[in-house]
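Preliminary data (for renewal application), (3R)-3-hydroxy-L-norvaline complex.
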Amino acid sequence: KILVIGANGQIGTELVTALRAVHGAGQVIASDINNPAYAIRNSGPFEFVNVLDKDNLHHIFHKHQPTQVYLLAAILSAVGEQKPKMAWDLNMTGLIHVLDLAVEFNVAKVFWPSSIAVFGPHSPQYNTPQYCVMDPNTVYGFSKLAGERWCEYYNTKYGLDVRSLRYPGLIGWRANPGGGTTDYAVHIFHEALKHGKYESFLSADTALPMMYMDDAIRATLTLMDAPAEKLSIRSSYNLAGISFTPKELAALIKDRIPNFEISYADSDPRQAIADSWPKSIDDSQATIDWGWKIEYDLPKMVDDMLANLKKIL
Ligand code: VAH
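Predicted structure:
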C-alpha cells in the first residue's frame, strides 16, 4: 500500500493520479486534512489526516501498513511569509512525525519534496550546484533546508530509505498551485484563456527554474524506483527543467493567443522571494545517479498546458 499525505495539493493530486495508474487505485491511499479534491474523490481510498496529530497519523499507518509514504503536506513560500510559525511547525513537525512513524512501521521508502527555495542570496545564481552556500531567507526555504538535514539524518542513523527532490517551480493543469512564488506561471494560462490578459506579480525579467508537472512526476517515480545503492544524495537532489522569465512565457502564449496582453504589478512581496532564488540549477548528480533527463522544453509545455486547459475551462 502507498500512502500519499497532502493528496489535495498541486503535487499530491498529480502523484495520486500517477501512482494509481501504476499500482491500481486500491493500493494508493490518498489523505489530506481537507475533503478530497475533485480529481481524486472517486478514484480510490481516502483518509482524513492531520500531520500535526501524531496519534491520528499513527492510526492511519497502523490501519494501512504502508510500504511507501509520500509526504507532500506543506505551507509554501508566499503563504509561509504570512504565517511563519505555522509554516515552520507544519513543515517541520509534520516531517519528523512521518519519519518517526516510517521507522516504527518499517516503511520501505519515503518521499519528501524539497525545493530550490533552499538556496538563498549568497548561493551561486546560475547553474546552482548540489553543494554550495545555502542561506535561504524564507521560512519555507529554511524549513526545507532543515528538512533535508532530518531526511539525511534518518537515513544515516536508522537506515530509513527516504528520498527527496529539490523541485523548481512546477507548472501543471490538473491542480492549482497552493500559495507559492512561482504560481504566476500557472495562473497566466488560466487568465490568458479566460480573459486574454494577466497581471504578473513578478517583474518581466525575473528568471526562475521551472518544470512541467509531467516531468516532475516522472522524475519522482524514476527516483523512487532507482536501486538504493545508486543514490549518492540522501538530503535532496537538485532537479532542473527550464528557466524562463514572465516576459518570455508571455511571448510564447501571445504566439498562440494573439490578443493576449500581459502587465506587471509593481510591488508584490513575492518579488523579493523570487530575487533570493537561483535563476538556473545544475542537476548533473541526478543524471549520473538515476539517469534524469527533461522531456518538456518551454514551447512543448506551453502547447500542452493550453491544449489541456482549453478542454476543462
Ligand atoms: C513555491 N512552488 O513557490 C513553490 C516552490 C520553487 C518554488 O517551492 O513556494
